[in-house]
Design a protein that fits this description.
heterodimer, A: 353 residues, alpha/beta, eight-stranded mixed beta sheet, four-stranded antiparallel beta sheet, 12 strands, B: 365 residues
């Protein structure tokens, strides 16, 4: 059952930042499993802890002030948190790579693009310079950069935003990793370029059998690319399901609110529905369910104000953390890290009208 | 003639804003950030200006308010022609023309209290006789935008992004303007906050009969918010129509591409999109003829005599003499000769005098 095997398992991850104002629990007990060749999306608003989750997997959390205080991260059976830094460097790039939102700040401005890709290649493979160069040009060409031999010699500032993001992806893929973590890869890009980059990621996934973990705030991007979705709110997962189930029957009131407040093409409401209030301050999270002050259902309920609901398995392969979800009281706890949620594509794509 | 019922509050004619850039010696070069933009907004309505980064949409907003000196053109605000007025005459008019900025972090002075920020327009324009009166008005403004009067004593850093955007809105409202340029007012905000701010702007528009120029890149947001939409590409408006008409019947291939690039939040409808190759060219040296021709799927179809792709409408194939080849991204591509030779005029369509576009290959009146 290789289809059902997890490439990445995160269990009980807690990453805290020890600041002057107090301890910020940026990630507070997050568990999930990512299946091979899946696109797993971690969705949430700014400050919910989605990027820190990704940085924790890469072990790139800035320390101090941040520290992974508990949890387990298994990549292909290897426990990443137990590795020495030297061993972890062998993993980064070769087994798992990451691309960031702002390609300009993640590329080094004083080296050519080619130089930076060759550096990554030669860190992991013993290759003579010319072979490494050929490999870099090849990977630039694979990510759809026109005239790759010329671009190889150019500096990051000579590339446009979309080309820089392609160069970042080329660098991330240069050592053929199994898992690519993409943190808001299209947020800084224009829509027509965003469409190009999302298509590129889909193509690379199909061609290379890549697993993608996509960190984003954009539900539309999730709908277009993801197989399995985890919704994060205030440092915890509140819902986890395959993309069809989540978009058809969102269970958590936060997810439901997000969908309602989303402006959609072709649906002309004069007023959008809103989620009242704003995201809570991580130094002073509300007691009980962290969403209850903004929740249409739970705001006045005593249990929501006092006790925090854990993630439970409400339907097959569909987890949610809300006291008021139908069937929550009887639902088993389940273990979201035990096995990846399988993705079932819809029977037939409805023709676009 | 489909007469407009009301005289527009704002009319822009052939607005041009060029920025000098360093070129060779004695060869001054210009970025044509805005190159011949014309539009009109009736009172109490919203015109959305949509485009990608570098299209010049922000420069249009700032040129209209004379925050950036324009190179040419005319702007009529009510009965005033703004570019003809001396600075001393502009100042009292500024009260009626305000702006809301994209970045709620950079647009509020961190050393001023919220009360000072919101009260400043009142002070500058001498709208309150006493301090007490000003304090009361600031309190009412803050309450109107969903904050508390007591927040006046706090500083911007104590507020979240959405709350700061409310402060910026209160400041813009303070001088009782009739026209507000909203420059990407929600694009820096989280989804759950975006809807709150959009609804607030809509309510304020109805309450005070505000006229908005709404600058945005998100076509889904614009469809909820605008009465009319103008699409910009490389400093020019390529299509302008009432909202329902533009979304139902986009004519310019760039508008079509923009619409089909918007990701749809529905996993059951993953579509293939009309893809645009390449990226927006530099406005220093824009392509000749129609500036969109190197990326245009329509001119390629016309030149090849191909049927239209999914979703698009067909264009009649061109005779061989009307076709030429250009180099795009290192490849030779067949396009319509007209698209390279001459810039398209910005004219209405035959059936709808209020639907303007600038494309050689679509019918124009």
């Amino acid at each position: 059952m290789s289809e059902n095997a997890a490439i990445l398992t995160v269990r009980g991850l807690q990453t805290h930042f020890f600041t002057m104002d107090g301890v910020v629990k940026a990630v507070d007990g997050v568990s999930f499993a990512v299946g091979r060749r899946q696109t797993f999306a971690l969705v949430g608003e700014s400050g919910c802890g989605k990027s820190v989750t990704a940085l924790s997997i890469m072990r790139l959390v800035p320390h101090p002030p941040g520290r992974i205080v508990a949890g387990e991260v298994l990549l292909d059976g290897t426990s990443l948190l137990a590795l020495r830094e030297r061993q972890m460097r062998q993993v980064r790039g070769a087994k798992v790579s990451m691309i960031f939102q702002e390609p300009m700040t993640s590329l080094n401005p004083v080296y050519t693009v080619g130089n930076q890709i060759v550096e990554a290649i030669r860190l992991h493979q013993r290759l003579p310079g010319r072979r490494a160069r050929d490999q870099a040009v090849a990977v630039l060409s694979q990510v759809g950069i026109p005239d790759p031999a010329q671009r190889y010699k150019e500096y990051p500032h000579q590339l446009s935003g979309g080309m820089r993001q392609r160069a970042m992806i080329a660098m991330a893929l240069s050592c053929d990793p199994d898992l690519l973590i993409a943190d808001e890869p299209t947020t800084a890009l224009d829509v027509t370029i965003e469409a190009q980059i999302l298509d590129l990621l889909k193509r690379l996934k199909a061609e290379r059998g890549l697993t993608i973990m996509l960190i984003t705030h954009d539900l539309a991007v999730v709908a277009e690319t993801a197989d399995v979705v985890a919704v994060m709110y205030a440092s915890k997962l509140v819902e986890l399901a395959d993309v069809q189930a989540l978009f058809q029957r969102p269970l958590h009131p936060y997810t439901q609110g997000l969908f309602r407040s989303l402006p959609r093409l072709g649906q002309k409401k004069r007023r959008l529905e809103t989620i009242p209030g704003s995201v809570p301050n991580p130094l002073a999270f509300p007691a009980g369910c962290k969403f209850h002050p903004r929740c249409l259902i739970g705001a006045g309920l005593e249990r929501c104000q006092t006790a925090e609901p854990p993630l439970r398995l409400l339907q097959p392969n569909h987890y949610a953390a809300c006291w008021e979800c139908p069937g929550y009281a009887e639902a088993p706890a389940g273990d979201p890290a035990a096995a990846p949620i399988p993705y079932h594509p819809p029977e037939q794509n409805e023709p676009a009208d | 003639m489909n007469q407009q019922t009301e005289k527009p509050l704002l009319v822009v004619r052939d607005l041009r804003t060029y920025f000098p850039v360093r070129g060779r010696l004695f060869h001054k070069q210009f970025v044509r950030a805005v190159d011949g933009v014309s539009l009109a907004i009736p009172p109490g309505k919203t015109l959305a200006l949509v485009g990608e980064s570098g299209s010049g949409k922000t420069t249009v907003g700032r040129s209209i308010l004379r925050l950036i000196p324009a190179t040419g053109g005319q702007v009529f605000f009510g009965d005033y022609e703004l570019f003809m007025l001396p600075p001393s005459a502009i100042r009292p008019l500024r009260r009626y023309m305000q702006m809301i900025f994209q970045d709620p972090f950079g647009s509020l002075n961190p050393r001023m209290t919220v009360g000072g920020i919101v009260g400043e327009p009142l002070k500058v324009h001498g709208l309150c006789a006493t301090r007490q009166e000003r304090r009361e008005r600031v309190g009412r403004l803050l309450e109107r935008v969903g904050l508390e009067a007591a927040h006046a004593r706090r500083y911007p850093h104590e507020f979240s992004g959405g709350q700061r955007q409310r402060i910026g809105i209160a400041r813009a409202l303070a001088s009782e303007p009739s026209f507000i340029v909203c420059d990407e007012p929600v694009s820096a905000l989280d989804v759950s906050i975006q809807a709150q701010i959009l609804n607030l702007l809509k309510d304020l528009q109805e309450e005070f009969r505000l006229t908005y120029l709404f600058i945005a890149h998100n076509l889904a947001v614009v469809e909820h918010f605008a009465d009319a939409v103008a699409v910009m590409y490389l400093g020019k408006i390529v299509e302008l129509a009432e909202r329902d008409e533009l979304y139902a019947n986009p004519l310019h291939p760039y508008t079509e591409a923009l619409l089909s690039s918007v990701p749809v939040p529905d996993p059951a409808r993953r579509r293939s999109r009309v893809q645009l190759e390449g990226e927006t060219p530099s406005p220093i040296n824009p392509p000749p003829g129609c500036p969109f021709h190197p990326r245009c799927p329509l001119t390629r179809q016309a030149a090849a005599g191909q049927p239209a792709p999914q979703g698009g409408r067909a264009v009649p194939p061109l005779p061989p003499g009307e076709v030429c080849r250009v180099n795009v991204l290192g490849r030779s591509v067949a396009v319509a000769r007209r698209c390279v030779a001459e810039a398209p005029a910005f004219l209405p369509t035959p059936g709808n005098p209020r639907h303007y576009h600038a494309c050689h290959l679509r019918p124009q009146a």
